[in-house]
TrEMBL record:
It comes from Campylobacter vicugnae. This is tRNA-dihydrouridine synthase. The lineage of its organism: Bacteria, Pseudomonadati, Campylobacterota, Epsilonproteobacteria, Campylobacterales. Pfam families: Dus. Its cofactor is FMN. Its EC number is 1.3.1.-. PANTHER family: TRNA-DIHYDROURIDINE(47) SYNTHASE [NAD(P)(+)]-LIKE. It is an enzyme of class 1 (oxidoreductase). Residues 11-301 form the DUS-like FMN-binding domain.
Length: 312
């Protein structure tokens, strides 16, 4: 289902962004594989009803992978058991890259890179328990030092079908330069597919493929405000202003369908990104922050993103 010979493009799991509406748009514009937002395995087990909405998928989302986080083997196993009850999920991914302190304190996310033995045990648990096609893992280059290439083979032996590597250590956060050469070392150290991640956009994706030799790319922040990036990469053609306006309008309607009136507030952050580089963006952002009506939001989107306005 994931054809790594075709160098697939993945949408990264992005907390607060890669929800059902964004994943639907990304898929429509050529994303090959979507991944849910990171979901705590504890939340799956102890707050089951509240997390079910996070795994809801669009009919377009095939293949679709759910990402979980955690460090307790028994809780991970129970979370997998819950996911096994749902059709339409093609894989389970273990997050070993999140650098957020509250996740690290639970010995989850990138903290697992400090305990490769436990990390591999968790992958084995998912692989042996899951009825899904894929077991995967998303890692960083290391916690403080770059050591991902040292555990790549062990992750494959533990049952990972592919590995996604963010080209920074946990210490590097989201601001350190991305080390694509280090991702290449991970690729060289294992026989399973490796997907490169970290600051990949329309301007550097070809260079990332060249440097890393990877089997696919995972695009994160570059998709926010540009969910059409997957089409641009595949077709080497930019969208026009009228297309952009229609996509933004569709995104807002998808948000309303998913969140109801709460979508108005949630969509503001997307409009902040969509408006970047357009004259009057600062004033537009301040204005939409005050909007509480879906109809007024539609009117302002129509007005601000009008192609004739952009030309003038």
């Amino acid at each position: 289902m994931i054809d790594f010979s075709s160098k697939p493009l993945f949408l990264a799991p992005l907390a607060g962004f890669s929800d059902l509406p964004l994943r639907t748009l990304a898929k429509r514009f050529g994303c090959d594989c979507t991944v849910s937002e990171m979901i705590s395995s504890n939340a799956f087990v102890y707050e089951h009803d509240k997390t079910l909405s996070m795994i809801e998928k669009s009919p377009l989302e095939t293949p679709y992978i759910v990402q979980i986080a955690g460090s307790n083997k028994d809780i991970i196993a129970k979370a997998v058991d819950i996911l096994n009850q749902f059709d339409g999920i093609d894989g389970i991914d273990l997050n070993c890259g999140c650098p957020v302190p509250k996740v690290i304190k639970q010995n989850a996310g990138s903290a697992l890179l400090n305990d490769p033995k436990l990390l591999c045990t968790l992958i084995e648990t998912i692989k042996n328990r899951s009825n899904k096609r894929y077991t995967s893992v998303k890692i960083r280059l290391g916690f403080n030092t770059k050591m991902a290439h040292e555990i790549a083979r062990d992750l494959a032996n533990a049952g990972a079908d592919f590995i996604c590597v963010h080209g920074r250590t946990r210490a590097g956060g989201y601001s350190a330069p991305v080390d694509y050469e280090a991702i290449a070392r991970v690729k060289s150290a294992t026989t399973i597919p490796v997907v490169a991640n970290g600051n990949i956009d329309i301007n550097n994706y070809q260079e990332v493929f060249k440097i890393t030799g990877c089997d696919g790319l995972m695009i994160g922040r570059a998709s926010i405000g540009s969910p059409w990036i997957f089409k641009e990469i595949k077709e080497n053609q930019s969208i026009n202003p009228d297309e952009k306006k229609q996509i933004i309008k569709e995104h807002f309607e998808l948000m309303l369908k998913t969140y109801g009136d709460h979508a108005i507030g949630i969509f503001r952050k997307h409009l902040h990104e969509y408006s970047k580089g357009i004259s009057g963006a600062s004033e537009f952002r301040c204005m939409v922050n005050q909007i509480h009506s879906a109809e007024i939001m539609r009117e302002q989107i129509d007005c601000f993103f009008d192609p004739c306005r952009a030309i003038s």
